[in-house]
Amino acid sequence: MDRTGEDPLLAVEDLQTVFHTDKETIRAVDGVSFDVHPGETVGIVGESGSGKSVTARSILGLIEEPGVVEAGSIRFRGDELTGGNWDAHRGDLAIVFQDPINSMNPVYTVGNQIREALRIHQDLRGTAAREEAVRLLEAVGIPDAPRRVDEYPHQFSGGMRQRAVIAMALACDPDLLVCDEPTTALDVTIQAQILDLLEELQAEEDLAILFITHDMGVIEETTDRVNVMYAGEIVETAPIDRLFESPKHPYTRGLLASIPGRTARDERLPTIEGEVPTPTEEATACRFADRCAESFDACERVHPGHVTVGPDHSAACLLHEQEYEPELGDDGDGPGGAR
Ligand code: SF4
User: Transmembrane ranges (predicted)?
Assistant: First the structure.
């Protein structure tokens, strides 16, 4: 969808979130920029340690010491959130974490917890709050919701608990739902159900979703646009179809090759050797160089910036410098992507 000219709901620009320890400073998010537009689903994908969850927490104002959002801008509906201004938009952004059991308080009923969110964010109380809690549980597919609203989290299965957590998030009446690995703790069948549910809710509630995951298969199913993250940086951004048809960054190609079903049946699933490095210094080279099968001399000396590699598609890799000449009518590196 061409969103040229539309104002983004969320605009993240040159975000830097660091963790100061006695020994070193970890640059967990190091110059990340991207937009999310109303009603859009944007993905951030990368291995564990890439900085994607720290990006999500930074956006929600959930970074705790020794971490700090040190520089950059996070604007929601044009309002700057950094510098302690999250409270003005507290209910407009909600998050669903990976593990539903840690997202709920075991000593309160599910209904109590949803009603508390309704009281804080929508000023609903009493019968109206109870009715809305039941409606939300029904909306997320909990059967027999009028009875189950009075049950405790331990009485719900893992999949049902994650549905209840999504209902709690919706009770905030958010415009942007940040989903941080929301299906990773669930088995494959339940995972598919939760992804379908999020898609339905997005259409019904007119939500924008920022989807954080390590799983390219989940990204393919859920997102309109994807940002591939590695060692604190976005290394490639594109609309989902373009990324899967024509990945440009060697790291993206490695992630795609590791999706089951994309390799011939008798071949072993390829993996990317090595681990994501922890960025502690300002980048002066490509952070992927040690693991990259296509690296060459300059990769050890030059930190690649983003270059346009196709319409609305950019990658931070020296292989693609000056490769793409935009044609008349191309929308270039337009809104929604890493900037
Ligand atoms: S800049 Fe070099 S090392 Fe980095 S991804 Fe591109 S080819 Fe590989």
Answer: none
